[in-house]
Amino acid sequence: MPIALPGLGLAGLGVLAFSFTLPATVLALDGLDPYLIGVGRAGAATLLAAVTLAVARASRPRRDQWAGLVCVGLGVVFGFPVLSTLALRHGASAAHGAVVIGLLPAVTAVLAVLRAGERPRASLWAGGAAGALCVCLFGLSRGGGRFSVADLLLFAALPAAAIGYAEGGRLAREMAGWRVICWALVITGPVSLPVTSWLLYTGRPRWTGEALTGFAYVSAVSTFAGFFAWYAGLGRAGIARASQVQLAQPVLTVGWSAALLGEHVEAGTWLAAAAVLGCVCWTQRTRSSGLLRGVTPKRTIRAAVSHRRARVGVLRGREADRS
C-alpha cells in the first residue's frame, strides 16, 4: 500500500492531462494539417525529451529494453496521435471520440494480463465484449447503420495506445517513468523530426491562437509531460490496477468538450459514455477478484522471478540517475 497509493495518484494526474487531449486537438485543427498535428507533436516533444535526458545525464537503456521502447514509440508517439487526429478531421467530435476511446482501459488491462502470463476468467472477456457492443451500437446509431471512417480510425487507435501503455508500464518497473517516454521519443526522433520539418515546409500551416494553443498542449503535455506521471503510476501501482483510474477519462473529456469547445453533447452520448464506463468497471472488478487462479505454478514462479528482476532493475536505474 505505501507503494501503490502514490502510484494511483500519479496515474490520476496522467489521466487528467490526457483528458484534455481531444479538445486540444480540435483547437489545433483550426489551422493545422492533421498529419502535422499527429507527427509534429512528436517532433516537438522529441526536442524536449532530448534536452531533459541531457540535463539529467540519464543512463542509456539496456539492450533488452530497446524493443519495448520501440513499441512505446510506435503506439503512443505515432499510432494513437495520428489515428485520433485523423478521426477528428473526418467529422468525429471530441465527445464522440471520448466514448469510443472509453474502451482503452479494458484493452490495456487485457494486454497487461497477457503480458503477465495470467489466465482471466470468462466474465472478464464478457465485460469487454459488452463494452465493445455498446461502442459499436453507438457508432452505428451515429453513422446511419454503418461505421463512419472516423469510428474505424478510433478503433484502430485503441490497440496502438494500449500497446504503448502496456509496454511503457512494464518498462517503468525497471527505469523511471520519465525515462521511458523520453527515450521512446528520442528513438523515434530520426523519423518524427524530418517528417515534421517537411510538413511545416509544405503544409503552409495557419498559426491562429487556437491552433497554437492546441498544438502546444498536445506536444508538451499529451505527448511528453503527461507520460511522466502516467508511466510512473503504471510502474508503481501495476498496469492493470492503475488503468482503473483511466475510467474517468471519457466522462472528463465529454465535459471538457462541452465546456471548452461549446459542443452540444446529446443525452445519447452521455448514456453511451456511462454504459462503457460500467462495462469497463465490470472487467476491472473481475480482474481484481482473482485472475491468478488459472496461473500454473511454473508461471507463478516465473512471475515472481520477473518481479524480483524488475525490482532490482528499478533500484539500479535510480542509482544510475543519481550518479
Keywords:
globular; 14 helices; mainly alpha; 323 residues
Q: How would you briefly describe this protein structure?
A:
79% of the residues lie in helices and 0% in strands.
Notes on the structure:
The protein is an all-alpha fold. Helix content is 79%, strand content 0%. It has helices at 4-18, 21-28, 34-56, 66-89, 94-101, 104-116, 122-142, 149-171, 177-203, 209-237, 239-242, 249-260, 267-288, 297-322. The longest helix is centred in the C-terminal third of the chain and has 29 residues, at 209-237. The protein is globular, with a radius of gyration of 19 Å. The relative contact order is 0.22. Residues 288-304 have low confidence and may be disordered.
Annotate the secondary structure layout.
Blueprint: H1 4-18, H2 21-28, H3 34-56, H4 66-89, H5 94-101, H6 104-116, H7 122-142, H8 149-171, H9 177-203, H10 209-237, H11 239-242, H12 249-260, H13 267-288, H14 297-322
The helix/strand series, from N terminus to C terminus, equals HHHHHHHHHHHHHH
Radius of gyration: 19 Å
Task: Outline the low-pLDDT stretches.
Answer: 288-304
Shape: globular
Measured distance between first and last alpha carbons: 29 Å
Main beta-sheet annotation:
none
What fraction, in percent, of the residue positions are helical?
over 70%
Count of individual helical segments:
14
Mean pLDDT, as a whole number? 80
β content, as a range?
under 5%
Structural class: mainly alpha
Secondary structure: number of strands: 0
